[in-house]
Amino acid sequence: MDKFIETINWCSLRDIGFVGPRFTWLYRKSDGSQIRERLDGALVTSDWLNRFPSAKLFHLSSSASDHSPLSLRLVPKPRSRMAGKLFRFESMWLKEPRCAEIVQEAWGEGLREASSDVLGKCLESGDRNTRFFHAKASARYSKNLISGLMDAREVWQEEDSKVEEIVVDYYQTLFTSSNPSDFVELLQAVNPR
Question: Residue 124: helix, strand or coil by DSSP?
Fold first, then answer.
């Protein structure tokens, strides 16, 4: 297993994660107990992930096999809420000698685009870590992006209004009181100081 992990790292591969049940393999023992594992997945390179940033691997259900079939969806889903990219300051820009001057000019002229000049300088100077940091930032963005959620009926929903409805319902249920009236058991569990 160590050689396999070493090879994955040497090839700079990463698991793209999954949507659906956690396990892809089920073994039923003769005593009725079960062994469940995630044996199946997808490893990709950073370049592949840049080409297919919205790719999702789905674990599907199967009654015909002890392995879950996998479905890889590559079609990008347009996000209606992303009007524009947020500006994020990169601390590596501080290495650029003209950074303070460029920032002052940008503030004076009201030009947000000037920030890209600092980034351009860093890229021109051949910063070896730029590609690594970009891959990390892209992976973090993909990881944090909610492209869909499972609803109460276990149906995957991707439509923005449906996802919003699932989140609102979840938190309304979570923070709705059941109006308990008998607090005796609860109060007995509290130790006075």
Answer: helix
pLDDT at 112 (0 to 100) = 47
Which of 71, 68, 18, 14 has the alpha carbon at shortest distance from 43?
Answer: 14
How many CA within 13 A on the CB side of residue 134? 12
Pair 58, 70: CB distance under 8 Å: yes
Most confident of 56-60, 88-92, 147-151: 56-60
User: What are the residues facing 19 on neighbouring strands?
Assistant: 58
User: Within 10 A of 93 (CB to CB), how many other CB atoms are there?
Assistant: 16
| Eight-state DSSP code of residue 67 | B
CA–CA gap between residue 39 and residue 113 (Å, rounded): 47
User: Residue 136 — pLDDT band, cuts 50, 70, 90?
Assistant: low
How do 34-37 and 14-15 pair as beta strands? unpaired
- β 156-157/149-150 pair status: antiparallel
Number of residues that this document lists for the chain: 193
pLDDT in tens, 38-78: 888 889 988 888 888 888 888 887 777 888 888 888 865 55
pLDDT at residue number 129: 56
The residues, any chain, with a CB within 8 Å of residue 19's CB and separated by 6 or more, are 56, 57, 58, 59, 148, 156
Taking alpha carbons only, the member of 6, 28, 8, 12 closest to residue 136 is 12
